[in-house]
Design brief:
Rossmann fold; two-stranded antiparallel ribbon; 8 helices; seven-stranded parallel beta sheet; globular; alpha/beta
Length: 255
């Protein structure tokens, strides 16, 4: 299915998987709505995509945890941007890696607000239009953590389990509206993820990927593009993507 002139809305588009999605969808000829907290990065990205691919982009700063900002930003989209064909719910994060009895409640709230509530706020604002138009694709970025609870993963794992459950709820509740919902659960992907988890500790973050070849953000973006370009009668509901060196959340072969 061609993406020429289709409108793709990507949250968390300023880095990592969101940025990689912006690049692969731009290459495919789509027009992009790019949202993230760091507007300067989005502006630079939009300019780069315009220069490289001729991509038309609409950018705005957005913290998906802010319910009112999500609603007002999406309602304020110009008319020629309001018919969203693909929503990529990518914004999210992990904070901390401590036993649950020692966990930071602030970290817990940040993860729940971004990974669960933020995904819900954006989806609630976009899905009615898709249902009314009887077309659309929603991509929800989950994690292997949504399938396996690992030691000290506790609340992060819980939020990604919720993403997987919400993906299932979306494609059940919208059945009959020609809407496709795809849940993507990656294993280890080398992005800013670990640096964010460890509150900016770059040295600790680097150890996560030592001794193996992890997935790249582009690897995940390519799979998302594949999901969105299948014929309309095909939905890839649930995909787990792992680096070959990773057999499970905590089973990793390192050289």
């Amino acid at each position: 299915m061609s993406l020429q002139n289709q409108t793709i809305f990507i949250t968390g588009a300023s880095a990592g998987i969101g940025l990689a999605c912006a690049e692969v969808f731009a290459e495919a000829g789509a027009r992009l709505i790019l949202a993230a907290r760091r507007l300067d990065r989005l502006t630079e990205l939009a300019a780069s995509l315009k220069e490289r691919f001729g991509t038309e982009s609409h950018v705005f700063a957005l913290d998906v945890r802010d319910r009112n900002a999500v609603k007002s930003s999406i309602e304020a989209l110009p008319a020629h941007w309001s018919d969203i064909d693909v929503l990529i719910n990518n914004a999210g994060l992990s904070r901390g890696l401590e036993p649950i009895q020692e966990g930071s409640i602030d970290d817990w709230e940040e993860m729940i607000d971004a990974n669960v509530k933020g995904l819900l706020y954006v989806s609630r604002a976009v899905l009615p239009g898709m249902v009314a138009r009887k077309r659309g694709t929603v991509i929800n970025l989950g994690s292997i953590a949504g399938r396996e609870v690992y030691p000290k993963g506790n609340v992060y794992c819980a939020t990604k389990s919720a993403v997987r459950a919400l993906s299932q709820a979306m494609y059940r509740d919208t059945n009959g509206s020609n809407i496709r919902v795809c849940n993507i659960d990656p294993g280890m992907v080398e992005t800013e993820f670990s640096e964010v988890r460890f509150h900016g500790d770059k040295d600790r973050a680097k150890t996560v990927y030592q001794g193996l070849t992890p997935l790249s953000a582009r690897d995940i973006a390519d799979v998302i593009l594949f999901c969105c370009t299948r014929p309309p009668h095909i939905t890839l509901h649930d995909i787990q993507i792992m680096p070959t060196a990773q057999a499970a959340a905590t089973i990793v072969h390192r050289q």
